[in-house]
């Protein structure tokens, strides 16, 4: 019975806690975001699947990867964006990997109106050498071209069967990246994070859409367009724009 | 969970200076180009642990018939390779694959072995002892020897804080060997000195560097029009490996099941990864002949000729392996550049480990 004397005090403290907006605003929840790779709308299978290319060739994809910088949530009512991550490397390089990979971030509960990120390595990080980071940091994944050319923002590697003879003997390697190519992608979505009915977000990237659309397919039969390693900026920019423009956000 | 190794290098430097013992490390300076080595939190480097690992590394006691040590195949004078196409185990048993060099192996925190069957040095070190074609023994026997050993047991006790011999496990052997191998650091090759502005490449070496790193990708640069070697996609500095797995076109395979050595696919079970092998680091590569996972190429010239030809067809051959179009001068230059990765001070200090 003597503890009953403390009950009003507990109630008062609880009420004070609930009234404290600062406490509420810093509460965070786990917020998983998935990244799915596709080819022509189907989940990407590294090396193990044959994919039809619009020009009639078939492809086997060996590698698809891109950096995501400054992954942020846009608060409702304005204010500073909430950064979930400064840099992520999203990579598919093995036939043993699923087409969807999920990263879990910490996010404040609240109302939001969008999600945005940079495709590539943000200029401030792109200015730093790999040795500045921990050996297992994503900028130490051996994607550094060199002191002047910096990090490779994205890669697509494949072998093509141009003649439909069953041999995938035309290599395609597209390695892209420079500060000038860094692109911000924004998805406008209204959603609430409260830890109970949070949305499931999947950022989808389609390799085929990065190479071709309904009217214009990247000419993989042209030897000049089979290997782009940053130097050929005119072609690299075209390919980069296709890649950066094709991201979509799937919400469930 | 993991911490940098800078403190360990300082400790080991102190040992080398104070105790009059042999140097346990290669050069500890010039590490600014490397991200700090990762060390598991449960196996920080200690003086006792590194010294114990060194002695275990060169002690044939670990093999079934006490004839083979780690150092039998990983010879310091050959940058810790053995000069043979395939390794030789107890009784002259022929191994399955070529012995890789160990320069900077401590920096390779991902998969080890040609097929990547171990992750991290602590795990890697456990494999050869029970491999029939390597040390050919078993852990129960080895641990029995070590627990009874008048020198090793007290040193294990000191290095790992063990209370009684029965607490000595295989993992402690792995940890000691890993601690030692993390001291095998090469950072003073001519390539390194050029990067630091302390030396300059010869004309041939500079041409080889341009080929190795695809300088011709810059259409406005001085090497525009030069063939690209496509080397650094997989052999990425500073350790000249990206630690990943590739089919580099050694064998033609109309069907992926045709590969004689399954490589990475033998570990993952993935048909698509049959015939893939881990890209080896190239530091001191001129000392680690012969080359490839099966040691089929005797010289660097053969290696360059292989890549220049584009390799044999298989549908999972790396897209970065295709005919390069190098002429003889360019091929020679590429070899000259590879020779700049030799670190003579690393070799000299490594040989001192045997004294």
From TrEMBL, chain A:
Q: Name one Pfam family in it.
A: MbnP
| Copper-binding protein MbnP-like domain: residues covered | 31-215
| Protein name, UniProt field | Copper-binding protein MbnP-like domain-containing protein
From TrEMBL, chain B:
Tell me how the cofactor is bound.
Binds 2 heme groups.
Q: Which GO terms describe its cellular component?
A: periplasmic space
Cite the SUPFAM superfamilies for this sequence: Cytochrome c
Q: Where in the cell is it found?
A: Periplasm
Q: Where does heme c 2 bind?
A: 231, 234-235
- InterPro entries per the record? Cyt_c-like_dom, Cyt_c-like_dom_sf, Cytochrome_c_Peroxidase/MauG, Di-haem_cyt_c_peroxidsae, MauG/Cytc_peroxidase
Pfam families, per database record: CCP_MauG
Q: List ligand-binding residues for heme c 1.
A: 70, 73-74
Record GO terms (molecular function): cytochrome-c peroxidase activity; electron transfer activity; heme binding; metal ion binding
What does the UniProt PTM comment say about this protein?
Answer: Binds 2 heme groups per subunit.
Q: Report which superkingdom the organism of origin falls in.
A: Bacteria
Cytochrome c domain location: 192-342
For activity, the cofactor(s) needed are: heme
Keywords in UniProt for this one? Answer: Heme, Iron, Metal-binding, Oxidoreductase, Periplasm, Signal
Enumerate the PANTHER family for this protein.
CYTOCHROME C PEROXIDASE-RELATED
- This protein is called Cytochrome c domain-containing protein
The record lists the lineage as: Bacteria, Pseudomonadati, Bacteroidota, Saprospiria, Saprospirales
